[in-house]
Sequence to fold (230 residues):
Amino acid sequence: MLKRGKKTPLPPGKYRMGGKHFKNDKAFIKTAVGDVQRLEKYCGLNTSSSLLDWGCGAGRLAVGVSEHFGQIRDYHGVDIQAELIDWANENLAGPGFRFTHVNVSNERYNPDGSPERTLATDPGTVDVFYAYSVFSHMNDEDTQAYLKLIEESLSTHGRAFMTCFVEEDVAGWEENPEGYGPLDWKGRLHCTRFARWHFEDHVNAARLAVDRFEYGQETDGQSLYVLRKR
Ligand SMILES: C[S@@+](CC[C@H](N)C(=O)[O-])C[C@H]1O[C@@H](n2cnc3c(N)ncnc32)[C@H](O)[C@@H]1O
Fold:
């Protein structure tokens, strides 16, 4: 269980990723629990699972796991922003909940990080992989490479749940597409958008298959993919 008295600690506003969507405490918890319920339904998440929350920020999903299950075998949050992982380690880590900082580069969140990509996990060990609004801020080369690492990380019946911007008739990969979505995109990798065929080519090249696709219902109009090993 998470270190808590009556309530699970919630990250302060400045540590909440996802813009206006997660600022309000009630909405923050609701989205987290909702995602855990979807992981249960679509990916078979249960109390015996190992769950990798890649790009976990300050641990929004950990709050959902705590509220919904109390504890699972292994919740592992990984992120490249040291300050957020420090907060999560101080406030959310405990039996069944751990967080790892990796100093890996991303042009938006950690431009001076190392080009050496890692998911900070062993091959074949992840039952449920979760990446919410992570591929929405990622260059094309990293996307392709990380999908391969995700495939390696999954256990035999593992599933990967992820969100990203995909559209049918657009360029393969584009950064901050003008006039697209609800925001005025600013700065590196604020919004990265894929053509659906292009993203799914990467999925295939990584020896993954699409288990579920839901168009445009996630934060700011992202789509949902659930992937499995081929
Ligand atoms: C928009 S935030 C989403 C945070 C969280 N998934 C949520 O839904 O609340 C994107 C997160 O991905 C992290 N990130 C980006 N590239 C990463 C990488 N290569 N490895 C791990 N985390 C990464 C960022 O640091 C940031 O915390």
Notes: The radius of gyration is 16 Å. The mean pLDDT is 94. The pocket of S-adenosylmethionine is lined by residues 17-18, 54-57, 60, 78-81, 102, 104, 106, 109, 132-134, 137 (CB under 6 Å).
